[in-house]
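Cross-check.
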Amino acid sequence: MPHPSSFSPPRRRLLQGALAASVVPAWVRPARAAAPWPQKPVRLVVGFPPGSSPDALARTVADPLAQALGQAVIVENKVGAAGTIGVTAVARATDGHTIGLTGNGPLTTAKLLNPAVPYDVARDLRPISLVGSSPFVLAGSTDMPATDLRGLLAHARSRGDRLSYGSVGPGSGSHLAMELLKTLSGIQAVHVPFPGFPQVATALMGQQIDLSFMIPSIAVPQARNGRLRLYGVSTAAPFPAFADLPPLRSALAAGQSFDVASWNAIFGPASLPAPVAQRLSEEIARILKAPEVRQRLFDQGWQALGTAPEALTRTIAQDTAMWGGVIQRTGVRGE
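Predicted model, tokenized:
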């Protein structure tokens, strides 16, 4: 082995530099640049079937989001268990390129109604953005004698438990909204569950049930055709798309609040890096500000939102607390 003094100056400097680098603490070394994201197509998992409201929202956002990201955004429907199968698939994803879109139930009430749901929202998911919000509309069959909201509640009180109402399943938003209204207004009605809102509408139009909280995209066209009657909206303020319908709270006693909305949101697995979630929320907010996208959602009965991850986190917490109280008071159980 050559004597150290035999190293030429350039070789000696290289050796000294290598030795110095080997003892430099990691925290003072230059950070390696993160790989650009996304590096492959992004999966957007929807836990509801093609043609459903969440599916329509996902497909509205997917194409412009793909343009913004420079990668395809592929909508994938994983249907079942009231949307929780889709959320479970996202929670378990490890590829770094899977996100999901769902309605509020799987992110708020699912675990309260069924402790066996295999994910925990706070632990297993990363909120990204609220996409759209819509009220429920309180719809009735055309044989109901009342023509306005106050008259409807008075008629319902006079009928005791001889009225019936439809929902899209035990523990669904339409079910819980009616249970909340029953608690606040003193009306009684028997619950009749259905597979979906089209079946609820058919039963209402056939006068097999009396009432239902429904999504506007199903109820409003039938009301315009004279086959259903609409009484009010579930939000605290009039909804722009249905400004002629009064808020439910306007017919309740002073001091009572009724502010219920159906919303959809985009989220990822907890392993999704926070900077990626932040970028996605910013891109989604920009997409939802486009006039043509806002109009498309408006035509479907949605108010376009687009929020920071923190806003979605707050909404999830607030709705979980509110519906948790309703579930505890009424004893509602999921399927």
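The chain has 13 helices and eleven strands. The longest helix spans residues 309-330. Passed to J.P. for a second look.
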